[in-house]
Task: structure prediction
Amino acid sequence: MEQKGFYKLPELKFEYGALEPHISLDQLKIHHQKHHQAYVDNANNLLRKLDEARLADQKIDIKAIAKELSFNVAGHVLHKIFWESLTPAINRQDEPMGTLKAEIERNFGSLDRFKREFSQAAVSTEGSGWAALTYCRTTKRLMIVQIEKHNVNVIPKFPILMVLDVWEHAYYMDYENERAKFIDAFWKIVNWVEVNRKLEYFMSKA
Result:
């Protein structure tokens, strides 16, 4: 069979201590090297299991593998977008500019209203999950969604522009069980430039 590719843990575009005091060096390092790495490893192990079974023409439980693969690959993809959604406070713009600013104001009325709605989605996500800003190509709307686990409530073909990880592993070392404080800190390290770049790209493809 043809050699196929596997997933890789992406390198961060900033040092582990660069997001302090909002996310500590130890918290970020464990999140990236342990938790994100685990999703990459699990997904790759499942791919190898599939490759080996197909090569040997062995029976596989495709229902179980497909479910596990969805969970782990989605975990990898969302974490990659999460890292891209962050930037050291010293380098960041204080608020969105350009297309993103205009679309937030058109869709939500104001940046404050958008932040309130996004924060509400994040704090009220049941159990482990994410808050995400997406773009609907059909209605030309920015939309906020809650993603449970990594792969529940995802809307197909809605590109994700920005995510906030509200699994406890994202903040427990710094904020213990106070998710709301972590969400408040997130707004101080949002990479508005990258979110705007993604929006302009997906709008151009609509």
